[in-house]
């Protein structure tokens, strides 16, 4: 975990994330009005589970150790698959591929696969730096021009009256609790929301657009889910408070720039860009740290010329 997120707290947070997104998907396909087929989340989960298990088995075999999913019995096996479970449901919930299954499978495979390929060394351990579900969605949107994002209305399509307000309030309440209690990402959320409002105000002023229009995305359930359950991913965001503020503000800034360039799917692209920039920064810092730890030429020469006892 980048930034030292405690393992026990991490696991508790993952469990609650997993329960929340599972309940949302069940309600979405039965009550709320999700427009994807039942087959798509099932295919996505099958892909993320298989990829996670295979990659862990491969890495464990190459290092001569026992795969983590074989430790801790049934409960340990379930806990191991929690990240894959969350990623699979998020991808299937947010992508809209009409009746196609393979683009969803592609997104799920990319989301998990990049965790093994795109990594940087932090404190002596390799960590992935790209938000898995967000990057899987980003790659799919770029690779398949016919694929889009689930329409915002489908989160409350089957609800009327107070239900239109109840669901967002529940998501905000549970998301705030999880991020305050388990991830510690409230500074990031505050910076993201403040930065989004600021860029909306700037764009409104520059282009003489009603402020209600530029702030409009903040009223959607998709934006709320993104705010509390995607941009806050502890594994791919900073731990220190001021670094969180910079990260959240950076995502908002990238969003504003992309919107000004008339680029669609800005929420996902902006997070991918900022995660990539952070990954490059971590790589540079680690390279500089390794260089500072390495012995100088004179020390190395002296070491080579010293007789061994």
Give a description of the structure.
- With 309 residues, this protein is mostly helical.
- It has one domain.
- It contains 12 helices and 4 strands; from the N terminus they run H-H-H-E-H-E-E-H-E-H-H-H-H-H-H-H.
- It has helices at residues 7-32, 39-63, 73-94, 102-117, 132-143, 163-183, 186-207, 211-214, 221-229, 241-260, 266-293, 297-305, and strands at residues 95-96, 119-122, 125-128, 148-149.
- The chain has a two-stranded antiparallel ribbon. Strands 2-3 form a two-stranded antiparallel sheet.
- A hairpin with a 2-residue loop joins strand 2 (119-122) and strand 3 (125-128).
- Helix 1 (7-32) packs antiparallel against helix 6, helix 2 packs across helix 3 and helix 4 packs across helix 5.
- The protein is globular.
- 34% of the residues are buried.
- Residues 1-5 and 299-309 have low confidence and may be disordered.
């Amino acid at each position: 975990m980048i930034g030292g997120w405690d393992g026990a707290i991490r696991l508790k947070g993952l469990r609650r994330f997993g329960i929340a997104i599972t309940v949302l998907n069940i309600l979405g396909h039965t009550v709320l009005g999700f427009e994807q087929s039942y087959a798509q989340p099932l295919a996505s989960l099958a892909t993320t589970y298989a990829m996670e298990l295979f990659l862990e088995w491969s890495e464990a075999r190459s290092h001569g150790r026992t795969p983590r999913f074989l430790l801790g019995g049934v409960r340990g096996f379930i806990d191991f698959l929690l990240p894959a479970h969350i990623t699979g449901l998020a991808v299937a919930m947010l992508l809209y591929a009409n009746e196609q299954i393979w683009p969803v499978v592609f997104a799920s495979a990319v989301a998990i696969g990049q965790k093994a390929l795109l990594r940087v060394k932090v404190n002596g351990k390799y960590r992935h730096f790209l938000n898995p579900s967000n990057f899987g969605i980003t790659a799919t949107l770029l690779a398949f021009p016919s694929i889009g994002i689930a329409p915002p209305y489908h989160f409350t399509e089957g609800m009327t009256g107070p239900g239109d307000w109840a669901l967002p309030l529940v998501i905000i309440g549970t998301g705030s609790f999880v991020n305050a209690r388990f991830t510690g990402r409230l500074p990031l959320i505050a910076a993201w929301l403040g930065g989004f409002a600021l860029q909306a105000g700037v764009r409104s002023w520059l282009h003489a657009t009603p402020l209600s229009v530029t702030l409009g995305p903040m009223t959607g359930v998709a934006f709320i889910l993104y705010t509390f359950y995607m941009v806050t991913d502890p594994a791919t965001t900073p731990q220190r408070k001021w670094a969180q503020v910079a990260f959240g503000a950076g995502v908002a800034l990238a969003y504003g720039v992309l919107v000004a360039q008339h680029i669609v799917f800005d929420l996902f692209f902006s997070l991918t860009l900022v995660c990539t920039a952070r990954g490059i920064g971590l790589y540079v810092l680690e390279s500089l740290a390794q260089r500072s730890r390495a012995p100088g030429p004179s020390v190395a020469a002296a070491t080579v010329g010293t007789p061994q006892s």
